[in-house]
């Protein structure tokens, strides 16, 4: 280059710089080919294999009229058998009625318009349950409660124990598991806690009405520090707990941090959910967990009430084929209407480093700090260990054929998990090669410690897009 004229050298440098910038952007925002994207089709994710499931062919999606087995109506006269004024009292009756049921039949609950200020706990049943609102809009029929992770177990029990009086052993165990904690934590905040497989909901709203204090909103509430995470204000609207084949049509899920939690269970290590023509809103990690979910023709709205917003926080296991797939969705925000936070950072997601106690991926400003692979997850300053199962919570999100609003960071839509120098830190890992290399960089042997035979070939994408549009 030294033999070229100055103007030509300058132009060539500019071209090389632009190419480098483009390469960085491509690495930070990977795009699938049409062939790669085909692997994440509705058919592949939900309907293929030994446990085939086709929710779009179900009458919940085809607008077939239902005949209710039970009716919940706030203004009705309660008869205790088929007509109820609260939803949980109806669920409690269904649990008793179906205790000895054989076969996997479906039970229908008609929910009349109104706001039901209560919790909904649905344990595993021998029947599948469909809950549907009959209002003209899902906003007319609302299940709502106010809980966040800092509520004490005693305060939780005082507020909600009455609605669970005389319940079955399974439901009582759910309540007790929350009430016995000093603080109820993330999974104790769920307004609707669903364990039953095949659960369906249509034309309703589920909302956690917790509103964060102003000082928390200003500070972000979700940042980590050298001694660990300081997250405190998780407030779940819907938690799907091993509830495989859960289906939602025209459902609205409202919250702030951690609105929708989808997780596997010992009963169902593969737990799949389908959301069609639905709406989910929140500000931080508001669609999260290790289950498989398919979002179709839905709106995902990021609220602009905090300096930084993350849409998804998947903790999908490395060995699980699919995480969260979004197809023909709209990613929107109220940032344009909020001058105070219009300059905030909005991300499509960050991969939840679930259950870690320390990070092997970067130094922490603690004398003698180390975080090494081990059988358990533990940290006692300055040293700790991290297990294989935690390292494998890689997190997977694919977004296809969708419209992504201008609020999302265009160059780096996928964020690291917390900041470098903090105990919860992990860099974003867009694919299986990046995961493998991160292990090597952390001096963790993928073969000797993790038990893998080789890198995945072809490369598997953890975070990627296909055929999306933007403003």
Descriptive report:
18% of the residues lie in helices and 27% in strands. The protein has an eleven-stranded parallel sheet. The chain has a nine-stranded parallel sheet with strand order 4-7-10-15-18-21-24-30-33, with no helix packed on it. The radius of gyration is 24 Å and the shape is globular. Residues 1-25 and 222-231 have low confidence and may be disordered.
Give the CA-CA distance, first to last residue.
39 Å
- CATH class category: Mainly Beta
Q: Would you identify the regions where 5 or more consecutive residues have pLDDT less than 50?
A: 1-25, 222-231
Shape: globular
Radius of gyration based on Cα positions: 24 Å
- What strand line-up does the widest sheet have? 2-1-3-6-9-14-17-20-23-29-32
CATH architecture level-2 label: 3 Solenoid
Mean pLDDT: 90
List the domain count as a whole number.
1
Total strand segments: 33
**Helix-strand category:** alpha/beta
Largest sheet: 11 strands, parallel
CATH superfamily: Single-stranded right-handed beta-helix, Pectin lyase-like
Q: Approximately what portion of the residues adopt beta-strand conformation?
A: 25-35%
Q: What is the CATH fold-level name?
A: Pectate Lyase C-like
Helix content estimate: 10-25%
Which oligomeric state applies?
Answer: single chain
């Amino acid at each position: 280059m030294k033999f070229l004229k100055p103007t030509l050298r300058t132009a060539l440098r500019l071209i090389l710089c632009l190419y480098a910038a483009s390469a960085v952007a491509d690495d930070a925002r990977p795009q699938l080919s049409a062939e790669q994207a085909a692997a994440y089709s509705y058919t592949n994710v939900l309907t293929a294999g030994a446990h085939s499931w086709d929710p779009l062919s179900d009458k919940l999606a085809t607008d077939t009229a239902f005949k209710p087995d039970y009716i919940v109506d706030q203004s009705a006269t309660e008869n205790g058998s088929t007509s109820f004024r609260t939803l949980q009292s109806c669920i409690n009756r269904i649990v008793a009625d179906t205790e000895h049921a054989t076969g996997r039949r479906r039970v229908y609950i008609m929910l009349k318009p109104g706001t039901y200020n209560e919790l909904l706990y649905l344990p595993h049943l021998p029947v599948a349950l469909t809950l549907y609102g009959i209002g003209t809009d899902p906003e007319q029929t609302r299940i709502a409660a106010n809980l966040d992770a800092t509520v004490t177990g005693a305060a939780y029990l005082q507020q909600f124990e009455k609605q669970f009086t005389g319940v079955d052993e399974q439901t009582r165990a759910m309540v007790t598991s929350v009430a016995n904690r000093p603080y109820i934590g993330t999974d104790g905040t769920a307004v609707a806690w669903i364990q039953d497989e095949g659960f369906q909901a249509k034309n309703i709203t589920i909302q956690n009405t917790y509103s964060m204090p102003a000082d928390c909103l200003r500070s972000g509430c979700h940042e980590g520090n050298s001694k660990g995470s300081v997250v405190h204000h998780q407030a779940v609207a819907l938690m799907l707990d091993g509830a495989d084949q859960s289906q939602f049509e025209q459902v609205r899920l409202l919250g702030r941090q951690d609105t929708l939690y989808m997780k596997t269970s010992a009963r169902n290590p593969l737990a799949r959910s389908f959301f069609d023509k639905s709406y989910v809103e929140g500000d931080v990690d508001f669609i999260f967990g290790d289950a498989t979910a398919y979002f179709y023709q839905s709106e995902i709205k990021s609220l602009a009430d905090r300096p930084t917003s993350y849409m998804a926080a998947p903790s999908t296991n490395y060995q699980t084929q699919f995480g969260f797939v979004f197809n023909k969705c709209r990613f929107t925000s109220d940032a344009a209407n909020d001058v105070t936070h219009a300059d905030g950072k909005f991300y499509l997601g960050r991969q939840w480093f679930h259950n870690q106690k320390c990070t092997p991926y970067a130094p922490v400003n603690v004398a003698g700090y180390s975080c090494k692979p081990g059988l358990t997850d533990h940290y006692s300053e300055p040293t700790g260990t991290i297990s294989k199962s935690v390292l494998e919570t890689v997190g997977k999100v694919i977004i296809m054929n969708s419209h992504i609003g201008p609020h999302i960071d265009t160059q780096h839509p996928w964020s690291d998990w917390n900041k470098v120098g903090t105990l919860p830190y992990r860099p974003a890992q867009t694919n299986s090669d990046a995961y493998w290399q991160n292990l090597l960089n952390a001096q963790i042997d993928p073969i000797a410690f993790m038990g893998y035979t080789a890198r995945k070939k072809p490369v598997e994408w953890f975070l990627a897009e296909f055929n999306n549009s933007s403003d």
